[in-house]
Specification:
The complex is a heterodimer of chains A (150) and B (105). By secondary structure, chain A is of the alpha+beta class. Chain A is 37% helix and 26% strand. In chain A, a hairpin with a 3-residue loop joins β2 and β3. The termini of chain A are far apart. Chain B has a single domain, classed as STAS domain (Transcription Regulator spoIIAA), CATH 3.30.750.24. In chain B, α1 packs parallel to α2. Chain B is built from three helices and five strands, in the order ββαβαβαβ. In chain B, β2, α1 and β3 form a beta-alpha-beta unit. Classes of the chains: A alpha+beta (150), B alpha/beta (105). At the A-B interface, α2, α3 and α4 of A face α2 and α3 of B.
């Protein structure tokens, strides 16, 4: 009994960093979804929030794989920073970088295929920052706060 | 995680019935694309998707649906989706696709 209580206390205050180094292969995106749902569940996010985070991180990883490819580096990196009240996720790739002009708000009336990913990430997460160094890859940082119904 | 697709053409209603189970993401999307291309080539009729067992769809999957819808629209056919899980409904809502496709239930 004492053990359980201690564990709960430990869970509460843990500020941790988890790092994944992921091969640039489509089959690993579902593994990342499973990983993040485990992390988010442990932090006390509810089911809807966990779904939001899963969708957002998948979109970021899919972009790292499809747009962030680089000859020399065949992997990308995902960092999870867990704090008591929020989860911050970074997805880094070593691709060619992206032009912010490539990222537009989709106009669904145009019925264009593609260009939804970043828009979806921004809609589902509380904070999103995309940083790109030309030729040096892209970093997308996204934050979700626990129990923050927007 | 896998994607399973069950397709059946209903002669009487002139409609494709498609049952999707599992997850559509960058790994499984090719399979979805192939199926859509194939059935539209066979018969350009409305596609009715049972999403009861569809757990997940990402932007690449939505892109395939948009592509298929564009081809059907020319013939005044459409895409109907029903039995949608809340998380997927939210996605259709955010992207405005709930106003493009016919959402039932
Ligand atoms: N990691 C990345 N590296 C380089 N360019 C990127 C990266 N992520 C996004 N981009 C650029 O931003 C654009 C918009 O990305 P977004 O995810 O919104 O759409 P998409 O990937 O083209 O299509 P969809 O996500 O709907 O399948 C991409 O087309 C690409 O040009
Ligand atoms: Mg994308």
């Amino acid at each position: 009994m004492v053990d359980v209580k201690e564990q709960i206390n430990m869970n509460k205050k843990s500020n941790d960093v988890i790092t994944l180094s992921v091969p640039n292969k489509p089959e690993y995106v579902s593994v990342i979804r499973l990983t993040v749902s485990g992390i988010a569940n442990r932090m006390g996010f509810d089911i809807e929030e966990i779904e939001d985070i899963k969708v957002a991180i998948s979109e970021a990883c899919t972009n790292a794989i499809t747009h962030g490819i680089c000859e020399e580096e065949n992997k990308f990196v995902v960092d999870f920073f867990t704090e008591e009240e929020k989860l911050t996720i970074y997805v880094y790739d070593n691709g060619k970088g992206c032009l912010s002009s490539n990222i537009k708000t989709p106009n669904i009336g145009e019925l264009k295929e593609g260009g939804l990913g970043v828009f979806i990430i921004k809609s589902l997460m509380d904070d999103v920052e995309i940083t790109s160094n030309n030729g040096k890859g892209t970093v997308i940082k996204m934050t979700k706060r626990v129990g923050d119904d927007v | 995680m896998a994607l399973m697709i069950n397709k059946k053409y209903n002669e009487q209603d002139q409609i494709w019935n498609l049952e999707l189970s599992g997850e559509v993401d960058i790994y499984t999307v090719e399979k979805l694309k192939e199926t859509f291309n194939k059935i539209i080539e066979e018969k350009k009729e409305t596609i009715r998707i049972d999403a009861n067992n569809l757990d997940y769809i990402d932007s690449t999957g939505l892109g395939v649906l948009i592509g298929a819808f564009k081809k059907l629209k020319i013939e005044e056919k459409t895409i109907i989706i029903y039995n949608i899980k809340p998380s997927i409904k939210k996605l259709l809502n955010i992207t405005g696709l709930d106003k493009i496709f016919t959402i039932e239930g």
